[in-house]
Amino acid sequence: MQVDVQQLMEKLDLFGCIQCGKCTGGCPLSLTTALNVRYLIYETLLDVLPDPGKMEELWDCTCCFTCVQRCPKDVKPAELIIGLRSQLVESGKIPGTVGDALMSIFRQGNPLGFAREDRAAWAEGLNIRPAQEGCETLLFTCCSSAYDVRSQPATRALVQALRAAGVEFGSLGTEESCCGNEVRRVGEAGLFEMLTEEGKPLLESTGARRIVTTSPHCFNTLKNEYNLSGIEVLHYTQLIARLLEEGRLPFSGRLEKTVTYHDPCFLGKQNHVFDEPRAVLQAIPGVRFVEMDRIRERSLCCEGGGGRMWFEGTNTEQRLAFQRVHEAAETGAEVLAVACPFCLAMLDDAVKVQGLSERLKVMDIMELVVQAL
Amino acid sequence: MVRVTIDGQTIEVEPETTILEAARRLRIPIPTLCHHPALEPYGACRLCTVEITLGGRSQLVTSCNYPIRQEMEVQTASERVLKGRRMLAELLLARCPNVPQVQEVAASLGVSTVRFERGDEICHLCGLCVRVCEELIGQSAISFIGRGVDRQVGPPFVKFSDACIACGACAFVCPTGAIRLENITDKTPRPLLSEFDARLARRGNIYIPFPQAVPKVPVIDREHCLHFALGRCGACQFFCEAKAINYDQEDELLEVDVETIIVATGFDLMDPRIKPEFGYGVYPNVITGLEFERLSSASGPTAGKILINGKEPRDVVFIHCVGSRDPHTGVSYCSRICCMYTAKHAHLVRDKLPQARITVFYMDVRAFGKGYEEFYDRVKHERVVYRRGEPSEVYKKGDRLVVRAEDTLLRRTVEVEADLVVLATAVVPRGDAAAVAEVLGLQRTPDGFFQEAHPKYRPVESNRPKVFLAGCCQGPKDIPDTVAQAKAAAASAMAILAEAARSQDEFTGGTDAG
Amino acid sequence: MRITEHATRNTYHTMEYVTMESKPRIGVYICHCGTNIAATVDVAAVVEFAKTLPGVVVARHYTYMCSEPGQALIKEDSKALGLNRVVVASCSPRMHEPTFRGAAERGGVNRYRLEMANIREQCSWVHRDRASATLKAKALVASAVAKAARLEPLEERQVGVTPGVVVIGGGIAGMIAALDVADAGFPAYLVEKSDRLGGRVADLYRTFPDLEPAGEWLEPLIERVQSHPNVTVLLNSLVTEVSGYVGNFEVKVSSSPNDHLEPGTLKPETRNPETIQAGAIIIATGYNPFDPHGKPEFGYGRYPQVVTTVEMERRLAAGDLAVEGKAPRDIAFIKCVGSRDVQLGHPYCSRVCCQVCAKQAQLLRKALPDARVTVFYMDVRTFGKRGEESFDEARRAGVRYQRGNVSEVYRRGERVVLRVEDTLLGRTLEHEADLVVLAVGMEPREDTGDIAALLKVPRSADGFFLEAHPKLGPVDTAMDGVFLAGCCQGPKDIPDTVAQAKAAASSALIPLIRGTVPVGSETAIVDPELCAGCGMCVQVCPFGAPSLDLLWGVSRVNAVLCKGCGACAVTCPSKAIRLQHFTPDQVLAQVEALVE
Question: For C408, which DSSP code?
């Protein structure tokens, strides 16, 4: 496939790169895959880029944006990968599973292959107010939070907590569609545009002043890329932390567990939300909070983002999630708390595969909160 | 003094003044072809013919060599004169119909038709070349040879002249371009090259070094000036209206008693021929950074256009560290300024040639000063590609050059084509640094620059008390660091002078008021 | 020494000033500035236009008006043609107004009857279209000519200079500056915030490139400063207020021997408030090392194995190289921590760190011959005298240089791991180490803003003090009589600091040695007949130049303090104040000429 280098050079600031290597040095995939973003930048700059259609490692990138965070010249290296992916998408040269997910989003508003009409099944019996009738706070549920049986308990827990705090909220139900965060990061600019063109008016039409998301991915794109006017977009940990501070969420029970927390890339590294999830966990009576070594800006990506939920990756033996769950277990924690449905899926799988199920449980923060409510 | 009336105007002139000179003082125009103010009049072209009336009798004479007699009356454009001139013009036009000067003369006299057989000569035998070579240059390398219609200008026996010194005065003075040095001598003329313009432009023997020279007066290159070399010429003195030229000026030796000396003798640039692999001196499109400065300067040899062999380059490659950081050349130190001036040059290329492809090959980018890293960022954003790797050689490929280097980040050897290669050459101590050091008793560091008293906290003091160092003579540095160091040297000098003034006061009893 | 001005009837009534004797005879000079102006503006056309303007006697264009022959044109025309005003259309007056004023003066024209039109920075450098740029240049020239026709001859005055220099900061820059001032025979007051002299150099163990002990020359230097008869050292002292102007500064210093003083606060128990009169002030307040907490990915403060080069220097001096009780086997240096980092807001290079790392790496190899020492870099900027050689020596001493900007540091058992791509190997590494040294850059000190406000000295984008000219004015500031020395102006090593400190001293010595300084005449004057004594001018002036004479009930302007900003002239409800050289009729004439 012939790369349109001109287009990449115009859109990206590749000339600013001094080839220092900070990006690749911090890229979580650079040790386990052939992905070397610094080298890609250089090759593009010099117009000696080989056929990206043959570079499977381009799909390994999780878009954790560590490279973007750390680049001393603010070049945004990951955008090159997204740019190359864009061109591959246009030529149709993408991994089959990624294509399937995109098609599913297009057809059914979610990447998991489920029917749109089943999107609200998790909320059965909860009598959630339809946001279409107008609401102050809109609960935006990630496709995984809605459809994935592993995530659904967390979603329901959030509803429970919000009700306990007396927060009125609504949900778009089956009209809700994928936020498109992963779509954009996979390079499908056209589909992303379609999703925002439909999604933005829909969200704004609810009259909501505030949107609470269950996933940091939705949080990231709704906050930074949708240009929603006059609407505050929060991740649920931010809202819960606020409610705790206001004293609106009293705990009646205790949870005697040692808990550690994994910073999700889209919440922590990219949007600098580190303290609120910790505040929530530490507010739960009985919880003994311990920190892993690689936390906050150095959190080790779970390999779930950037389309990786739809692509196995070129290296299935040395998954980052395996390393992560061992790190968590080494702290002596019984629970590895997460705040993202992708992290939940990846780390939960890793615990099982690595045989740590006896020692460590992976749970969403909300699942822990409701145990003490 | 004798009095003469020319075209009704009267003037008093010294005896032996020619009619032409007198007419010129009255600003009366008389056409000439073979006249030159610095040469003896020759009377060859006859165009300057005028009609004189003396003692009642009139005749036609050539004004260039006819002296004024008392009470002479001259008419420069009487009908008789004009008739003669027109015939001359017609004859000239017949011989040299394509020479612009002749065409002009003919046109000014209203002559357009030629009744004679047409030739196609360029030389109209004015003899200026012959006379300049004989009278001013003193070599008499060429002369008129042949007679009548076969008369021509050339060296004896139409063979290459031994007497010719290839000075080019004949070609300079020839009004038609007929003289060609290669027909007179097989010696190659060596043009004098302007040192200021990095030898990219020519200069004369008497020249103003550069437009901002202070004082802005010409200097004579005594080594090449014919007057000093052979006792000849003297044309400059002849022409100087202010009579400002004095060949007898001698070097003045001044003895000055001072309290303190500041040495600010500067630096030189290494001759890149020490690194023959870059092809400098072999390929005309390999130049040094200083030569690039002159090319890009509005007052330089190309008026600021980047031109190589008259063409704008498409691909420009800059090479860092040519000679520096290189024990082979004896320059193991860093020259400090090259990374930044190369970035500046890259920026200039981008400014003047928006479509050019610009590459800079480097080992490190030493953008250490205030605002320097930011400038480096800016230059890169101007689509200048920095490639890490010190090129190993430059060779020719047709009209273009190829720069061969390992791009150490790509981990591949690359061959980058270029129309222009600019070398950042090492900063070295001046050629006369050893002499200066000897005269002043200064020590030098192993790199050859003058040694400071202490490398950390005494950067401007030399090993000799009361002698201070400023600028690049102590080591390569950029302008802000040079300015600071120069002021620092001044500070040390001020202290000495203040001390001297105080002891003077004490000695004289402090009689100064205040 | 205060100079006050009475506006007399004569000088005030400008309208009547246009007598036959001062009928404008204006010379207009259009500069090409090489191709800087001439490439965009049709200078010949502007000259022709200028000739049509009222009062213009001669108009010329020339390649470089600021050159000797250019200035000679002005001088000769002025003499030969009896010019009494000169207009130069060229670069910004900030470049060459003094030059052209001098040229005019040499031709017999009062130096304040020179007006400049900026057709470079404000025209040829910012426009591309030749036609409209030429039109604009013509308008600017017309405007300048209109003003020139109305300019009054003003006299420049000289004020006396207090012999004495206040040096703020007792580090190496301050000490060297003070010594040079003192050696020249003038009193130097060295105001140091902390309780000792020596600044950050006193914390050094050895200096690059020759690995000499710093104390060997520093201690005698401090001794010399303390014992010099012309130097007064004020420790534990802070400059709290500065008033006055070049040649006549009043610097208030508060000392508190036992308390740590904070900028901007005056504790009630501070003793010995002193007012020092000085002719010049040198700022030598130094820098702060970057706090690597600002780069959390390196684990500074979390891991005991991670230290800064500043801390490393002290450890080397103390011989305390053990980490967690053991000698480190693997030592790694991370360069450019807090420098060359756009996202951090520190895009600049801190200049010294490459040499510091080469030095410390070499010292570590000597102290721990069995340790592996690796320096991770983006570039190696060992540019100084013997810098490259010391880099060579470091490598020969066994220091490994690997090109890669370390991305993060994390723990692995008792050691730490540096995650870095070696860009020359093209491979990402997990480099294990026992000791990680962060080469922290230089930052402006936190009190830079306070000092800038005290002395009214601007700062550059990087936060350090701004020098007057990036090339030719490394020690001057926008405030006359205030100079910069050392790292407070930007990161630099010791020899460059010393040179700059001496440069500042020599600049400060100039007015002191001369004994007087010239004071500009573009100042405000009050017509006492019109002044109602309302005092609004006093309130509005940022420089404290006007003051009310309570006896006469009118305001008087101190012409030396006055900076010519015009705020008072605009404020005065009685129109009693006017700004010389910018009078209402002059300015209005300019505006009218522009819109015609």
Answer: E
